[in-house]
Write a structure and sequence with these properties.
Helices cover 18% and strands 20% of the residues. The protein contains three helices and four strands, in the order E-E-H-E-E-H-H. The protein has a four-stranded antiparallel β-sheet with strand order 2-1-3-4, with helices on one face. Strand 1 and strand 2 form a beta hairpin. It folds into two domains: 80 residues, 3-Layer(aba) Sandwich (Rossmann fold); 34 residues, no CATH class. The protein has 148 residues and is of the alpha+beta class.
Length: 148
């Protein structure tokens, strides 16, 4: 079997330069999320995470795996909703395990099974959640901050 070479007119992927709001010095660390030896064992003995180590740069990424692989447990640990049995999680400069409140002020997490009120608009729901998180007050919407 032979494969044809793609036409030279196709664009070649080139990484984008860093956005203007990010530091351009060589000391800039593009890693946004860092997990080291993350383990979580449930009280019944189920080991959902076993020494997970990874680094995720700024950008958009997906987390894929079969049912029971530990995706939800991993996301709950990253979002500071569940304390891992051992290991470290860093979100930028924030040590998530040691200082979960700092992460909660920065990160929003919407799980797949999130109950919403059927007659509330998306904008009203986000405004309500911002008030609950202390990011805004009624009638004074929160201003998003950019980290990547």
């Amino acid at each position: 079997m032979t494969f044809a070479r793609p036409p030279s007119s196709l664009p070649v992927y080139q990484p984008s330069p860093l956005p203007a709001y990010l530091p351009s010095s060589e000391s800039y660390d593009p890693v946004m999320l860092s997990l080291a030896q993350l383990t979580h064992v449930y009280p019944n003995g189920t080991r959902a995470l076993d020494g997970v180590t990874l680094e995720v740069p700024c950008g958009m990424f997906g987390l894929l795996g079969p049912n029971g692989a530990g995706k939800s447990t991993l996301m709950r640990c990253i979002a500071a909703l569940q304390i891992p049995t051992s290991g470290t999680i860093r979100f930028g400069e924030i040590d998530v395990v040691a200082d979960p409140m700092s992460l909660r002020r920065t990160l929003g997490y919407l799980p797949q099974d999130f109950g919403v009120y059927p007659r509330v608009t998306a904008v009203d729901m986000l405004d309500h959640l911002a008030v609950l998180k202390g990011l805004a007050s009624r009638g004074n919407p929160a201003r998003p901050s950019r980290h990547c």
